[in-house]
Each structure stands twice: as C-alpha cells, then as structure tokens.
C-alpha cells in the first residue's frame, strides 16, 4: 500500500509539473506508474505500465509535432520557431517557471519583426505561436490525465 501512495504522489506532482514547467510532468507521471508496476508485479500492472508507456511516448511526440506542423501550416518559418525556443531557454534560466513561456513568445515576435519589418505583420505570427503553446500544453495535460486514469483503473483492478 505505501508504494501505491508514493506512486499516487508522483503522479500528482507530475500533473502539477505540467502546469509548472520546472518539473518534468509526463516523466514523473510515467515514473509513478512504473514504481507501482515494479512493486505490484501482476499482469494488470505490467499491462498498465505498457499502456502508460505507449500513451506517454505518443503524447510527447504529439506535443511537439502537432503544434510545429500548425505553425508551419500558417507560414511560420523554422528560424522563427527556433528563435522562440532559444529565447524560451534563456527565459527559463532568467525567470524560472514563466520565463520559458515569455521567452518563446518574445523570440517569435522579435524574429518576425526582424523578418517582416513590421509590428503589424509580426503580431499575427506571435498569436499563432501562443495558440501553439496552448495546444502543446493541452496535449501534455490530456496525456498526463490519460496515464493517471489508466493507473487508477489498474490500481482498482489489481485489488
């Protein structure tokens, strides 16, 4: 029972970590499921771990691919996206938690201002970048909730 509690705490901390980007949310959630499966060692727990692993991998891949494709579909160049990522890293170091978000948006905006030479034309791209961040967050949160729900069902079935 204590391992199940520890796993539950890891999963909850992981869910918080999705909203607070200092913590590796999906990794902690998957780790919580893994700790429980290693302790339980039943066919149900191994199945839950396999499903959680597949969901986590799919979520991580989708979290980066889908928003990136959407940005390219509306004409945001890769260099603009890379500028956003670079300033997100700087922002994360300078202002923990919200700095990554602010840095990404600022990087996209500055890159588009330099490329298009106009605030008026750079702003729509920045709005698309904000939507991409929201989509990425939604994918990660949805994945985390699916994995947590899978674990909870597994815990109930293994009793």
Q: What this model shows, in words?
A:
- With 159 residues, the protein is an all-alpha fold.
- It is 87% helix and 0% strand.
- The chain is elongated and about 65 Å long.
- The chain starts with a helix and ends with a helix.
- It contains six helices and no strands.
Structural Rg: 19 Å
Helix content: over 70%
Low-pLDDT parts are none
Order of helices and strands: HHHHHH
Kindly report the average pLDDT value: 91
Largest sheet: none
- What is the number of helical segments per DSSP (H or I, 4+ residues)? 6
Number of strands: 0
Distance between the termini: 10 Å
Strand content: under 5%
Outline type: elongated
Judged by helices, strands and strand pairing, the structural class is mainly alpha
Secondary structure: elements and pairs:
Layout: H1 2-19, H2 25-40, H3 43-73, H4 78-94, H5 99-116, H6 119-157
Helix pairs in contact: 1-2, 1-6, 2-3, 2-6, 3-6, 4-5, 5-6
Salient structural properties:
elongated, 87% helix, mainly alpha, 159 residues
In short:
This protein has 159 residues and is mostly helical. It is built from six helices and no strands.
């Amino acid at each position: 029972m204590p391992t199940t509690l520890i796993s539950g705490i890891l999963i909850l901390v992981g869910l918080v970590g999705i909203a607070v980007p200092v913590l590796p949310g999906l990794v902690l959630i998957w780790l919580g499921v893994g700790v429980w499966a290693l302790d339980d060692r039943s066919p149900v727990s191994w199945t839950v771990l396999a499903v959680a692993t597949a969901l986590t991998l799919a979520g991580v891949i989708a979290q980066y691919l889908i928003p990136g494709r959407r940005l390219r579909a509306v004409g945001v160049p890769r260099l603009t996206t890379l500028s956003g990522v670079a300033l997100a890293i700087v922002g994360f170091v300078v202002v923990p938690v919200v700095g990554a978000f602010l840095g990404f948006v600022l990087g996209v905006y500055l890159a588009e201002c330099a490329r298009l030479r106009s605030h008026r034309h750079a702003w729509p791209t920045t709005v698309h970048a904000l939507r991409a961040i929201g989509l990425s967050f939604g994918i990660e949160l949805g994945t985390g909730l699916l994995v947590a729900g899978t674990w909870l069902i597994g815990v109930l079935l293994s009793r």
